[in-house]
Specification:
Rossmann fold; 7 strands; alpha/beta; binds NADP nicotinamide-adenine-dinucleotide phosphate
């Protein structure tokens, strides 16, 4: 819980894609705590309803699979939200999957899923969100990259490539979105304890996990270590920040020596 910074998002509307788990879940709850209406989207309805329970008047849920959702699905989901609450002030895209893609065990289907979820899903989200009928002028978008975009995670070139693509795309999208005074930035978290890393832990193995933990001067992160930066980027206090990547990583890219 943040004690010395208070965000105020009363009468603002946001959409969080990937709201059923991990960082997306935490961001959804922090936005509602700050008074915003939040449309929480992911595939798992049961987990979304759990999130909604904490703020039933402020959080609504919709299920969507970003691997399947086309422009008409986004129009329906966003259109219903806009009709109820008015135009949207910003959105957060956290949907992502990881997975090993070492050359010796390369599975191109998995590589495509990794890229589709983090990158192409993000582009469809932004395309839907930025339509004039959905977006309030001066909206802010935050999309999730990773320190894997900046540092070569061994055996994960597809994930690194997907997140590198997110960072690069943001620089270009920022120039396009500026037309309507919208801003877009990416966030590159380091290792954050969520369901995603519980799954990777089994794939990566105990020895490497020990080394990864040792490479974090401030220790590995929790969702609440990343969420405040996202809320800041969504807020008007960040009105001069667009087209860039913000690393939130417990100092891991700086190194321990
Ligand atoms: N945790 C880390 O250490 C770490 C580090 C750097 C970057 N990141 C990035 O940060 C983001 C959030 O990670 P996290 O750790 O919070 O992950 P998480 O706990 O696994 O949450 C991922 C979210 O994405 C949703 N999602 C996945 N595939 C989807 C699909 N096809 N359609 C719709 N929703 C989908 C999941 O919901 P459903 O399953 O309900 O659909 C879930 O809500 C990801 O982009 C990840 O790559 C994570």
């Amino acid at each position: 819980m943040m004690k010395d910074v208070k965000f105020q998002f009363e009468n603002k509307n946001f959409v969080v894609m990937g709201a059923s788990s991990g960082m997306g879940r935490h961001i959804t709850l922090d936005l509602a705590r700050a008074g915003a209406h939040v449309l929480a989207v992911a595939r798992n309805e049961e987990r979304l309803q759990e999130v909604q329970k904490s703020f039933p008047d402020l959080i609504e849920v919709q299920t969507l699979d970003v691997l399947e959702a086309g422009p008409e699905d986004w129009d329906r989901v966003l259109g219903e939200f806009v009709e109820k609450h008015g135009k949207i002030n910003g959105g957060v895209y956290t949907a992502g999957i990881t997975g090993m893609s070492a050359l010796r065990m390369y599975n191109e289907d998995l590589a495509h899923r990794i890229l589709d979820t983090s990158f192409f899903g993000m582009t469809r989200f932004i395309q839907g969100m930025a339509k004039k009928k959905h977006a309030e002028k001066g909206s802010s978008y935050v999309v999730f990259a990773s320190t894997a975009a900046h540092y070569g995670n061994r055996g994960q070139f597809a994930y690194s490539g997907a997140k590198g693509a997110v960072c690069s795309a943001v620089r270009s999208l920022a120039k396009e979105l500026y037309r309507d005074k919208h801003r877009i930035n990416s966030i590159s978290p380091g290792w954050v304890e969520t369901e995603m890393v519980v799954n990777s832990r089994n794939e990566i193995g105990d020895d490497r996990i020990k080394n990864i933990y040792a490479s974090y001067p401030l220790g590995v992160g929790k969702p609440e270590d990343v969420s405040p930066m996202v809320l800041f980027l969504l807020s008007d206090a960040a009105r001069w920040i667009t087209g860039t990547d913000v690393v939130v990583d417990g100092g891991s890219l700086a190194g321990t020596d």
